[in-house]
Amino acid sequence: MPDLDFAALLCSRLCHDLVSPVGAINNGLEILEEENDAAMRDAVFDLINKSTRQAANKLQFFRLAFGAGGGFSTQLDLREVEKALRALLEGSRVELDWQVSELSGSKSLVKLLLNVCLVSSEALIRGGTLCVKLENVPEGLALTVAGSGQRIIMQETVKEGLLGNLEENELEPRNVPAYLAACVASELGSTLKVELDGETDLTVKAIINSTN
Fold it and tell me: Both ends of the chain: CA-CA distance in Å?
């Protein structure tokens, strides 16, 4: 797929996720222009504050997951990555269990981790726990993202995207983060493994060679 087309899909996904909070901010401002009731104005201000924070959190997350977050640095602080992921999940029914002792990681590793976390969290349609592990093993680094909840639904095209099995004409904003994760894993000399245990447990794994 041409780079421009792939970038367009990522931009579409970003815009899709920002439409709701930005739209809420705009609607809130319009209401404030005509609303005089103090209680209603307070409620609208609260909505604007929450929506503004949500939009900022999404932008920070996608800057790392899709963009060139970190500038010219080759390594990123994984504590900042955790912070961005927690912010994205703020207000959702998904709790993060971060079990990462490494202090830094390459930009490619961060992109892989965040995109896998994004699609895994979206599969937790009724909420649950998202556990992220990054461990040193003889082969390199072992990344494990495990989701557990009352019900897990991962669309087939998203799963196939993680496995690197999607054709270009099957790509859409919904599954492009999964496809990106598979591409980054390949660049790191790895492949993703997806395990679904009924409708309650999901695990995505990758082994990354320490030289990448």
Answer: 24
Residue written as token pair 């703020």: 90
CA distances for 47 relative to 21, 27, 84, angstroms: 9, 10, 21
- Number of structural domains the chain divides into: 1
DSSP string covering 124-163: BTT-EEEEEEEEEETTEEEEEEEEE-S-B---HHHHHHHT
According to DSSP, the β-strands at 140-148 and 128-137 are antiparallel
Q: Domain of 128: which CATH number?
A: 3.30.565.10
pLDDT at 73: 64
Rounded distance, CA 177 to CA 137, Å?
26
Alpha helices in 163-202 (DSSP H): 176-187
User: Which regions in the chain score pLDDT beneath 70?
Assistant: 1-2, 69-73, 210-212
Report the alpha-carbon distance of residue 128 to residue 199 in Å, rounded: 12
